[in-house]
Specification:
The protein is mainly alpha-helical. The chain contains four helices and two strands. The longest helix has 26 residues. The chain binds zinc ion (2 copies). One zinc ion binds next to loops. The site of one zinc ion has 8 residues, from loops.
């Protein structure tokens, strides 16, 4: 039951409390930071904030955000741009996937999407180009 463990953050000896691998002191700090981050994300204009924006705004530890996402304390379906990094390439992952599209084998599909986007941009460029020469 109450396994003695080393706190994941300060390494002091503590007793495991539920799923948490933090001592009481670090858990308190963790909760406080989580509140700061959630307060930021709950603002309407910040719903689509990226990890970088959250880091800049709250000065929280990047790894902690990933912990909260893994623990379900930050729900990706609520905040679509808060994702875990792909373990292979570090690309931001969307809800429920463990590898980014380029690493998970749907590489070709990804390429086609890129082509499509490039195609669209290409058309736009051409349109502007012709307009300028009229
Ligand atoms: Zn600790
Ligand atoms: Zn990847």
């Amino acid at each position: 039951m109450n396994n003695p463990i080393n706190c994941e953050r300060c390494f002091s000896l503590t007793v495991q409390n539920g799923k948490s691998k933090l001592c009481q002191k670090c858990q308190k700090i963790d909760n406080a930071w989580l509140e700061i981050v959630l307060d930021y994300l709950r603002k309407r204009e910040n719903r689509t904030a990226t990890i970088v924006q959250v880091l800049n705004a709250t000065l929280v530890n990047e790894e902690w955000i990933y912990d909260w996402v893994r623990q379900g304390k930050i729900l990706q379906r609520h905040f679509p741009n808060i994702g875990l990094p792909c373990p292979k390439c570090g690309e931001n992952l969307t809800d429920g996937v463990s590898l980014c599209p380029s690493c998970s084998g749907s590489f070709v599909k990804g390429l086609e999407e890129v082509k499509e986007i490039e195609g669209l941009q290409g058309d736009k460029h051409t349109a502007t180009y012709f307009k300028r020469n009229e």
